[in-house]
Design a protein that fits this description.
Distance between the termini: 30 Å
Largest sheet: none
Order of helices and strands: HHHHHHH
Number of helices: 7
CATH architecture: Orthogonal Bundle
Number of domains: 1
CATH class: Mainly Alpha
Strand content: under 5%
Shape: globular
Oligomer: single chain
Length: 113
């Protein structure tokens, strides 16, 4: 991910987190991270984020991964989820988590329409 993309991702996470009234520490704990610094570095565009952590943060913020990445198109979310499910290196448990997240996004999108 290039620097500009990391900055935009961090900005969207921070805006949504603040809108929900969550502290960096609360968000970090909700995604199983020990320190608010993890979120602070992501919000500042200073840290890369794994796909799994991005999905967990999106879930906690009630938005899609595509929204956090700056693309609000619903089809993009579906493509990302399908690509992750097709990853042969994911365990069955991780595939189930991805499927659960995909269904969450799908249902959330229906409610927004």
């Amino acid at each position: 991910m290039d620097e500009d993309s990391k900055i935009q991702l961090g900005k969207r996470i921070r805006e949504k987190r603040e809108k929900l009234g969550l502290s960096q520490s609360e968000l970090a704990k909700s995604v199983n991270k020990a320190s608010a610094a993890y979120i602070a570095f992501i919000e500042g565009g200073e840290r890369n984020i794994s796909a799994m952590d991005l999905m967990l943060i999106a879930r906690q913020l009630g938005v899609s991964v595509s929204y956090l990445m700056g693309d609000d198109k619903k089809n993009e979310t579906q493509e990302v989820m399908q690509a992750l499910r097709a990853d042969k290196e994911l365990s069955k448990k991780d595939r189930e988590k991805v499927e659960e997240y995909y269904n969450f996004i799908k249902n959330k999108s229906k409610n927004e329409d």
